[in-house]
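My hope is that you will study the protein record below before we discuss the fold together.
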Amino acid sequence: MITINPYLNFKGNTEEAFNFYKSVFGGEFLGLMRFGDTPGCENMPEADKSKIMHIALPLGKNNILMGTDVLECAGADCAGADFKVGNNISLSLSPESEEEADKLFAALAEGGQVVMPLEKAFWGDYFGMVTDKFGIQWMVNYAYQQEAAGAERVAEANA
C-alpha cells in the first residue's frame, strides 16, 4: 500500500519548527541529516552546513511529518528563489516497489514538470520530484530496504 506524508519546507527555521511539532505531537526524530553531511557540501557557506537537509517525525501509527530548510542561492531555477508560504509543501509518496514508483512518477509528470528525475539518490533510495499539471509538488521515494525487510518477513514466516 502506498503511504503519503507531508513534506514541509522552511526558510532556515526547520529545526525550530520541528522542535515545536515534537512538543505538540511527541515522538522522536528519525533520519536527521544536515546539509554539511551531504556529498558536495565543501563549497557551501558555513551557515548553511548546519541547516536541516532532512528531518522526519513519526505521527501516529503510519504517518511521518518531514521537512527541510530551503537554502538561499542564486538563479531563477533555485528553490530558494521561489520560496513563499503556500508553495512550501510537497506530498511525499512511498510506493511498495521501484516499478510502482516509475508508474506513479510518470503519471504525475504527464503535463507537469520534472523537478528532479527519478533515480537512485546518494542516501540509497530511488527518489524523484515532480510538479503535476495542477501545480502540486510531489516527491516519490522508494526505499530499497523495504524489499529486504519484506524478504526477511517472508523467510521468517516460512521458517
Remarks:
- Helices lie at 14-25, 46-49, 98-109, 145-158.
